[in-house]
Amino acid sequence: MFQLGFMQNAFIAGFIVSMLCPFIGLFIVLRRYSMIGDTLSHSSFAGVAIGLVLGIDPLLTAFSFTSICALVIEFLRTYYKKYAELVMSIVLTLSLGIAIILISSGKASAKVDSFLFGSILTVTDSDICLIAIVGGICLICLLFLYNKLIYVTFDENGAKTSGINVKLVNYIFTLLVGATISLSIRVMGILVVSSIIVVPVATAMQLKKGFTTTLIFAIIFGFVDVMIGLISSYYINSAPGGTIALISVIVLLLTLIFKRFFSYED
Predict the structure, then answer these.
(1) Tens of pLDDT, residues 40-85
(2) Does a structural domain hold residue 114?
């Protein structure tokens, strides 16, 4: 299995995704902003459809369109401060409408399923290059903004008072979320990409550790979920997205069981 080129590509892409998604996911969960994952994953669906119709690399069009939608979400948030979920619904509706029209037109190629459910067969060398470059940039940005993101996440008003450009930080973070989702769809698939963003974080939070420790455990759980999911999908011939999502939920349930068991022991 490990000698196969397509599996090597899938594992490389999976490793990057497993590092990036829980990193982003912890800030999303703490901001109670989880719906943005589903919203931008549907935006990436529209981007993929645009790429397939125009004959352009779908990952590039997904990245571009998702980034635009991320900026629109952040812009509209200033007009609907108390109704953030309304902004998500607007962008999600727009994206789904575009995707459905383009896919149903018959002009898109038959590759749609691999983007919806993920595929270990279709991760190409060019995909790996794009995922590695953009993923690396995202990780560097997250590390550079780490302290500011923590401050803005827990106390946005206090961050403004201390001189942090909160609006810029929020715009950059939303762009990073969009980029992360568009990079993850090759492995995870559009329908379940939000699971690898949220579920490893939910698992790590059960350990009740500090912020940095929770982040580290979220990345570890994300890595375990993705790797076991990829290996399982190879042997049972299933879509990796659904398999990884299922593994992540199983790991969460096992963590809850062990936590409950050891709490009784104590």
Answers:
(1) 888 888 888 888 888 887 888 888 888 888 888 888 877 776 666 7
(2) yes
Domain with 94, as residue range(s), is 5-194
Q: In the chain, what are the helix, strand and coil shares in percent, each to the nearest 5?
A: 80, 0, 20
Long-range contacts of 139-146 (CB under 8 A, 24+ apart): 139/19, 139/20, 139/23, 141/172, 141/176, 142/23, 142/24, 142/176, 145/169, 145/172, 145/173
Range of weakest confidence among 103-112, 127-136, 192-201:
103-112
Q: Assess if residue 158 is contained within a domain.
A: yes
For the chain, give the number of residues: 266
* Cα–Cα dist 260/265, whole Å: 9
Tokens of 121: 């067969």
Does residue 200 belong to any structural domain of this protein?
no
**Would you state the structure tokens that stand for residue 161, as one six-digit string?**
């008072």
Q: What angle, 0 to 180 degrees and rounded to 10, lies between the N-to-C axes of helices 35-54 and 166-188? A: 60
